[in-house]
Amino acid sequence: MNISKKKWSIYGAVAAAIIVASFTAPALADDGQMTPAQLRAEADRIELASKRAEYTKSLVREVLADANSRASFQGSNSPVTVNVHGFAQTRYSYSGGGGLESNRGFNVPRARLILSGAIYDWEYKVSGQWSDSTNTFDLKDAYAQGGLFGGTFRVGQFKSPFMREVLVAQQDTLMTDRSIVANTFGQGRSQGLQWSRDFGLFDFAGAYTDGFNTANGAGVQNGQAFTGRFGFDVADWWNIGAAISYNDLVDSDYTTYTFDTKVSTGGLDLTAAYVATSGDAGDNWGTTVQAGYMCMENFQGFVAYEYGEIEGFEENLSTFTVGANYWFNDNVKWTTDVGYALNGINSAWDLGETGWRAGDSGEYVVRTQIQVSF
Fold first, then answer.
1. Going by C-beta distance under 8 Å and a sequence separation of 6 or more, which residues neighbour residue 357?
2. Digitized pLDDT (tens) for each residue of the chain, 374 residues in all
3. Which residues are CB-contacts of 64 (< 8 A; sequence separation ≥ 6)?
4. Burial grade of 94 (CB within 10 A; 0-12, 13-18, 19 or more)
5. CATH fit for domain 83-373, picks 3.40.630.190, 2.60.40.1180, 3.40.30.10, 2.40.160.10
6. What is the model's pTM?
């Protein structure tokens, strides 16, 4: 907390007054001679006033020292910094069709508090989130990272370097929420360590963790996962990426891999991804395509399509979404989209906070959301 100039002026005036008072002898009441008793009383009064002045000066010095330490803690020269930020989402959803009864209402899918900063040469991030779907406040990120072998070494709880759509921050997603495919095949958060490096035209990240979606110890079976991701800049506006992960969960194990691409040119942002699993997780796969275009400086229209297959189910996932983003300013974003299911959605898909429900073809969902970041 910085001390304002006004407060410093007050402190200075107080200190000056005390110093002047401490070196100024009190005047006698009259010019007459004083009795021994009066002299003793006057001496006691002077001594008491002197002690009070010394005590007050000491107190002011302590206040000023404390204020200075607090200002230094937040200053640019401090080896320790603390930044407080986060975001909150308020959403209204309406869904129906597909043989389902209509469902409508407001909710707060996410209210996240984030602390980040630096401790000497290391960076850190700690975040927690409240969701009304679980009615709990859960730890999300909790990691520290620093330089190692020309790259960045990270340890703690974080997102493994796998699906691009999951690596994008929640507040920066194109649609109101991530796709069903990303919820089902995505890596979520894990606990472990990671090393990454940007080599210029290409980048690499490798992680050793306790498995996908094992944040806060959830679902850990004494397991482990090895994950690696590569990215390559074909041009300034075109990037392609690929990742593979092996999850060994003792009682089961599986391999999952993904390929993705991103094109950003002019006002167009286009992403596409394919992800699949094999092994004990089954031969399942999904693909997504999302395109957004900045029609105006603060208005973006978008479309998205996703398709996927879960082993053992005849009907495949197939949904289409169209919507728009509007930015009131850099910190307030309004997103509205409408989705339609071309096929039925079975319960094997992880629908998360998307608003979709397991049902027949013809299901639709309308979502509108205000997001405030700070």
1. 95, 98, 100, 103, 345, 351, 363
2. 444 443 444 444 444 444 444 444 444 444 456 676 666 666 666 666 676 667 666 765 665 566 555 544 455 578 999 999 999 999 999 999 999 999 999 999 999 999 999 999 999 999 999 998 888 999 999 999 999 999 999 999 999 999 999 999 999 999 999 999 999 999 999 999 999 999 999 999 999 999 999 999 887 778 999 999 999 999 999 999 999 999 998 888 999 999 999 999 999 999 999 999 999 999 999 999 999 999 999 999 999 999 999 999 989 999 999 999 999 999 999 999 999 999 999 999 999 999 999 999 999 999 999 999 99
3. 11, 15
4. middle
5. 2.40.160.10
6. 0.80
Q: Which residue has the tokens 């602390």?
A: 115
Block residue for tokens 């996410």:
110
